[in-house]
Design brief:
This is Type III pantothenate kinase. This protein is of the alpha/beta class. The protein has 2 domains: 57 residues, Nucleotidyltransferase, domain 5; 146 residues, ATPase, nucleotide binding domain (Nucleotidyltransferase, domain 5). It has 5 helices and 12 strands. The protein has a 5-stranded mixed sheet, with helices on one face. A 5-stranded mixed sheet has the order 10-9-8-11-12, with helices on both faces. Strand 8 and strand 9 form a beta hairpin. It is globular. The chain starts with a strand and ends with a helix. The structure holds adenosine-5'-triphosphate, pantothenoic acid and potassium ion. Potassium ion binds next to loops.
Length: 223
């Protein structure tokens, strides 16, 4: 008998799910498990608030393993690696075989992970995401999603907005350059809620995969 399967990615800002081939999302703040469809089996990847999924039955939670198929973790303590990062990496191995991949997740946090053609994770970086960065200085706190570059401001609001835009985009472009120098040709894959607004300000072409973590979850649950 065919069993329905529901895949859930709980981040710090958004809860995303995959059901019958369709992707959905809701703000973690507004999320209620009543929003989810009924399924025979539920698979969850949670780096956010686990209590959001309380009350769900038949739910399996995953953590990052040391190894999975080609993937080999770079972490000294593999289960400390965010499961969303692990799942994004195995999805990238599946979707971009035999190439060095750089995965940039621009979500609540900004993460970089490098995976060699053979599946060896080279480690990564965690930085504040755009929202965290813009809220990091209480007096100037801003929820703006504008990314204005190459301009100097003549008022405080714009100075913070342009400054944080410059900081955020500079570091992403800089990391890409650094990895290209170190590893040569790279497949760059961009995911996370801010992927789209970043992509066209990058100096390199990238593939945007908003649901890479859910794709990885579906793969991992199948194995
Ligand atoms: N509908 C939306 N509601 C809120 N934020 C959104 C929305 N769409 C895009 N975003 C942006 O996406 C970012 C969150 O990204 P993402 O969806 O990757 O979060 P997350 O998975 O919860 O984060 P993380 O995995 O880093 O905890 C926010 O900073 C916000 O700018
Ligand atoms: C870095 C985040 C917040 C990105 O979603 C998540 O992957 C996480 O909480 N990771 C645990 C720490 C680590 O990956 O080393
Ligand atoms: K994420």
């Amino acid at each position: 008998m065919y069993k329905t399967r529901l895949f859930i990615d709980v981040g710090n800002t958004l809860v995303k799910w995959l059901f019958k081939g369709e992707y959905h999302s809701a703000l973690a703040l507004d999320f209620d498990s009543e929003l989810l469809p009924k399924a025979d089996r539920i698979y969850a990847a949670c780096v956010g608030e686990q209590s959001l999924l309380k009350g769900l039955k038949n739910t399996r939670f995953f953590k990052s393993p040391a190894q999975f198929q080609q993937f080999k973790s770079a972490y000294d303590t593999p289960e400390d690696l965010g499961v969303d990062r692990f799942l994004a990496m195995i999805a990238s191995i599946d979707q971009y075989p035999n190439q060095t991949r750089l995965i940039i997740d621009a979500g609540s946090a900004l993460t970089f992970d490098l995976v060699l053609a053979g599946g060896e994770h080279q480690g990564g970086l965690i930085m504040p995401g755009l929202g965290v960065l813009r809220r990091s200085f209480t007096q100037f706190s801003s929820d703006s999603k504008q990314l204005t570059l190459g301009k100097n401001a003549n008022n405080t609001k714009d100075a913070w907005e342009y400054g944080t835009a410059q900081m955020f985009m500079s570091v992403i472009n800089h990391q890409i350059e650094t990895y290209l120098t170190q590893y040569g040709d790279l497949q760059i894959i961009l995911t996370g809620g801010d992927a789209k607004i970043i992509a066209y300000r990058l100096k390199h072409t990238v593939d945007i995969k908003p649901y890479l973590v859910l794709d990885g979850l579906a793969l991992y649950a199948q194995a």
